[in-house]
Amino acid sequence: MTVRSILAGKGSSVETIEPHFSLSDAVQRMAERNVGALVVVDSKRELIGILSERDVVHELAARGPASLNQPLGDVMTRKIIVCGLADMIKTVMEWMTEGKFRHIPVIDQNQLVGIVSIGDVVKFRLEEMEREQSALRDYIQTA
Question: By C-alpha distance, which of 119, 108, 26, 17 is closest to 67?
Fold first, then answer.
């Protein structure tokens, strides 16, 4: 199965923010929207970074509450791993595990078209395993 399958079920909505907003603004938005990451985009809506809950924790630990006034451009993760609609879910899960990150933006034709979290991946895999078990049970009962 591919990333396209996940987005077909969850939708392609992505919470974005621009780098001039403060870390405090980003934290507030993450809380309001109940998301674990914001994709940071420039004025042309092009991906330039990502801010995750982990980034917030690391920044607060390093610089204390004063860091909440920092612009996102100073604290966001700039080295971003992205995936495409045709990437296999298993591959994306491996990237997340190896890279120790939980959110991956989805790009198609140089455009941001979604975001996938580790929770999305796990949910999809569990549903897939349940479908396989059901199919096996049906097969055994009819054999």
Answer: 26
Residues 6+ apart with CB under 8 A from 4: 85, 86
**50 and 39 in contact (C-beta within 8 Å)?**
yes
Bridge partners (DSSP) of residue 115 are 105
Give the CATH number, domain containing residue 77.
Answer: 3.10.580.10
Total number of domains constituting the chain: 1
Q: Could you read off the pLDDT of 23-38 as tens digits, one per residue?
A: 999 999 999 999 999 9
pLDDT of 139 reads: 77
The three-point CA angle 17-18-23 to 5° equals 75
Counting beta carbons within 10 angstroms of the beta carbon of residue 106, is it exposed (0 to 12), middle (13 to 18) or buried (19 or more)? buried
116: closest CA among 98, 140, 89? 89
pTM (two decimals):
0.86
Its domain, for residue 72, covers 3-142
pLDDT (0 to 100) of residue 131: 80
Which DSSP helix (H) or strand (E) runs through 45? none
Contact between residue 50 and residue 115 where contact means Cβ atoms under 8 Å apart: no
